[in-house]
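Q: Please design a sequence for this.
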């Protein structure tokens, strides 16, 4: 039994006449009569009474037609659902990210993606860079945002592009001696109690601080370890010490705090977007399209990496574009 048999039966029931039904279907009457007869033999029951007044469904026919309408509706809905999924309008996207990405650029990106793709289920996971890289390689995430280019086993399978550049800034309480100053020299930080993020979560930042302040710096070894950037800012507001973190912190001003540049200007690792080169997910394609629209420089980098093919075809051509 095929969908066309259901359509033929429904057309015959609607027009109550083989000739009129055949005309509406765009076929000749003899083939329609044969198809209906074949359908009745397959079902094992007479579906239509042929009378001088017209062709009318039997009790068996009425029961069959009720199911046939629902079946055709489901087939049509299945086609629509498949097309939407292929366009990345449905499905799911699993994103791993470090907390500081919520300052910039994730709010704009996620907001736009949710508005443009409201039926894509977002699964968001805050996690450290190394953990999100491992989850991405293992297929547990679709995309990850972390610090620096991914490394370790399987990293060669990933496409990575920078989506944010940072440098070191300091945050202090508004009552701190540094408050009101546009910058603070790094040598002066050696004599201040510091607040930093944990090395497990931001290892490349801590490595940079050790290079800047010295591997055995008493200020760094005695620093207060905060869970994330928001905690750094909060502790600085309480007067605990000088908070050090990425310039993305400037997008989260808090009453009672003051931000100042650290001189000399100290670059920090880029915020990097990564995904598997062989990923064929339409939802990921849709997410990358939003990245292109929201961040022109990132879009250019993606186009340079992926070319006109898109990530799924690029994965087939080259799985080492990191």
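A: Design:
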């Amino acid at each position: 039994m095929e969908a066309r048999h259901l359509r033929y039966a429904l057309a015959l029931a609607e027009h109550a006449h083989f000739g009129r039904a055949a005309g509406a279907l765009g076929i000749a009457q003899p083939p329609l009569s044969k198809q209906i007869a074949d359908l009745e033999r397959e079902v094992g029951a007479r579906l239509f009474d042929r009378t001088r007044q017209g062709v009318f469904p039997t009790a068996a026919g009425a029961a069959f037609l009720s199911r046939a309408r629902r079946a055709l509706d489901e087939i049509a809905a299945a086609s629509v659902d498949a097309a939407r999924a292929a366009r990345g309008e449905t499905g799911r996207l699993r994103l791993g990210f470090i907390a500081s990405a919520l300052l910039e650029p994730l709010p704009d990106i996620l907001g736009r993606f949710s508005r443009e793709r409201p039926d894509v289920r977002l699964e968001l996971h805050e996690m450290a860079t190394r953990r999100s890289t491992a989850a991405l390689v293992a297929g547990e995430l679709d995309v990850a945002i972390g610090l620096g280019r991914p490394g370790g086993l399987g990293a060669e399978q990933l496409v990575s592009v920078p989506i944010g550049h940072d440098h070191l800034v300091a945050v202090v309480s508004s009552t701190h001696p540094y408050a009101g100053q546009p910058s603070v020299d790094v040598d002066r930080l050696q004599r201040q109690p510091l607040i930093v993020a944990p090395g497990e979560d931001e290892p490349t930042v801590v490595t940079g601080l050790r290079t800047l302040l010295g591997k055995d710096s008493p200020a760094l070894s005695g620093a207060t370890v905060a869970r994330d950037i928001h905690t750094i800012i909060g502790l600085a507001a309480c007067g605990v010490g000088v908070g050090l973190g990425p310039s993305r912190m400037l997008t989260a001003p808090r009453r009672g705090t003051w931000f100042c540049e650290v001189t000399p200007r100290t670059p920090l690792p880029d915020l990097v977007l990564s995904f598997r080169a062989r990923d064929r997910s339409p939802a990921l394609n849709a997410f990358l399209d939003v990245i292109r629209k929201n961040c022109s420089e990132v879009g250019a980098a993606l186009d340079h990496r992926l070319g006109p093919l898109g990530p799924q075809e690029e994965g087939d051509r080259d799985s080492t574009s990191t």
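Q: Thanks. Anything notable?
A: Residues 96 and 144 are 5 Å apart (CA to CA). The first helix runs from residue 3 to 15.
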